[in-house]
């Protein structure tokens, strides 16, 4: 990577790119309802007596599953990012056990907490793809918010970050979702199904503005930020994780390689690189268990700095 | 549409395009197992005493759900074609009731016959995306074969058509799957995840060869062929359906518009255009019920021509 590239990598996300992304995005349905649920959730879990789950005011926003990029406004075709959502669903369980309240921002149809151990029943494949915008609250400490497209995902993430602002350093953003890097701006998108009559199809995809730095610097500047780096090529994985740490000023980047991601991850911070492995001696043990344990520990240290 | 376009539309699918598609496709896993299941299924259901379901030797291959197009060999991103698979799953039930045996070629995770009335339970969303290549046979008259990519879909469709050849005019191909029109040839595909560092992404997608005409003319020349046309633009729907009927020498094209597809479809044949509507007077009535009834009637007429 040469100097020019590096400089390019480290520049801030241009404001006009961000503005133009949101301006051109289709309006979020149920934005008012989502805001209301978030407000109630935060009020309930950050009272002076601590949250309903016992841990004083700690909240984590877990983003999970892949975002889609529609190729047509009346969408028949779309680019999808593969993600079962297993990492986010399992991590949700461990954060709840650790006393956090959780905002679970998930792709419709992806894995849910507390049902990863269901049998592989073919009946389970018959899920509804209907656009249920149902917002579910489980026992007051888990708020589930679904998304499908990159437009929905980023708009809801912004709503969450604003609603968690008062939580300050007690909030974690645990961004395990597979977010599209490229998209077709809404205004340049075909209205109807693209016709296949004539020859090859050339698609120009614009880069999705790097919202991580906007989230980190503007939307939730006090929170503890964790992003993920998934690659299939191990040779570039750690370099890319370290670069993401610097570029977006993340507090932690969790690097994982596609083929071994259920066995181990590498936690990269400014101070350390720690490989976290699942406990092979216990049947059914998941890598998310020691991972969340480590995150909670580093988050505690982070909070103490503000208390001092 | 001008004359040049029309001529282009009516030409046969070039052999070299077909050969190059299959040669460049990744090898189908379990091809031998699929062939064996198909052979047993056909033997069982086309004996001299009729099939297990009572109707003499009638078999329908129902293709259901959308195919994906990987953008990377170690696939993280892919283009998907939206389809819940509801049409195919519901039609499977009505064909079974009508005495047909059914080969159900379906997208993993899409709707299954006999479970569309399940409650909208959030637990059901937690299905496994694992690559179970499980081949299921229900009571001997339903063979379920799963696919994910366009490469798998077309290879399995070819295996089915070969295995149904001896069934002759008693076989129906009911092609309700949403098949990708464009793809990235395997040999020109990126091995690893496409990097997002530098500027917009230009993708050139090749046209998927029009396999409908290959299926119709070469793979299963005696069968009764039904294809589907889905559009979001009603203005072009009937014209495109009629053109598909001629171009691919289909026996029937079922035209449906995205927003009304659960209420009505238009059945287009050389002789007629029939609008089929669901029975609004019965709660839970589906358009697939009168649709399959009409198909069975026209298929009976088709078979009689061969008997005469």
Automatic annotation (TrEMBL), chains A, B:
<dbReference type="InterPro" id="IPR035929">
    <property type="entry name" value="CoaB-like_sf"/>
</dbReference>
<feature type="domain" description="DNA/pantothenate metabolism flavoprotein C-terminal">
    <location>
        <begin position="165"/>
        <end position="276"/>
    </location>
</feature>
<comment type="similarity">
    <text>Belongs to the PPC synthetase family.</text>
</comment>
<dbReference type="Pfam" id="PF04127">
    <property type="entry name" value="DFP"/>
</dbReference>
<dbReference type="InterPro" id="IPR007085">
    <property type="entry name" value="DNA/pantothenate-metab_flavo_C"/>
</dbReference>
<protein>
    <recommendedName>
        <fullName>DNA/pantothenate metabolism flavoprotein C-terminal domain-containing protein</fullName>
    </recommendedName>
</protein>
